[in-house]
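Q: Hi! New to this. If I give you a protein sequence and the SMILES for NAP, can you show me the bound structure?
A: Yes, paste them in.
Q: Okay, here:
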Amino acid sequence: MPRVIYNTATTLNGFLADEDDSLSWLFVVPGADAAENDFSNFLAGIGALVMGSTTYEWILEHEDLSEHPERWFYRDAASFVFSSRPLPEVPGADIRFREGDVAAIWGELVEAAGARDIWLVGGGDLVGQFADAGHLDEIRVSVAPVTLESGRPLLPRRLESDRLELASVRKSGQFAELVFAVRHPSGG
Ligand SMILES: NC(=O)c1ccc[n+]([C@@H]2O[C@H](COP(=O)([O-])OP(=O)(O)OC[C@H]3O[C@@H](n4cnc5c(N)ncnc54)[C@H](OP(=O)(O)O)[C@@H]3O)[C@@H](O)[C@H]2O)c1
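A: Thanks. Here is the predicted structure of the protein with NAP bound:
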């Protein structure tokens, strides 16, 4: 069974993006390049990824994918985008638009991942939906030396220490990489 991993950068106070969905605070952190290399290794082990529509639209715009579809990073994996709206496609990319209960696509997601893992890209509430459904195994956060007044939340769910176990801590440039194993409510 593939493992489901939420891997993201976050501010020290738990935001994925500011209230305008900007990541400008992230790209100026010293050591962001080294983190990119670590990220390529991580991506090699991923067979399917999942994101919400705000994240997808951010990538479309940031990479100018309507003009440059070849810039879609995740050619080697199926991408599941959750939205209740029709969204632009990226020619040549395996992008599957889905909506509603995340548990309903679990079988399809596992099949797409094959022998590799599933990456939950974000946002936080969508990851929370996977946690609610018992489909979240690991949280890997790269904590940036940044705080913001407000923004998009990392994981707006109550998961206490009976559910989260700190597995490792590592310094990568100016980021603190924290890995937590997630225990399922049943104890699994
Ligand atoms: N720091 C990082 O490394 C990092 C990582 C990931 C994301 N980000 C950024 O963080 C922000 C996250 O945005 P966000 O909090 O709005 O989250 P998001 O998950 O990207 O988008 C949320 C939207 O996805 C759709 N959605 C979610 N669950 C759904 C479901 N079960 N069925 C149908 N549609 C569903 C809904 O929109 P509609 O139905 O209206 O389409 C919802 O409003 C973005 O700006 C992103 O670029 C940063």
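A: The CA atoms of residues 56 and 121 lie 10 Å apart. Let me know if you'd like me to explain how to read the tokens.
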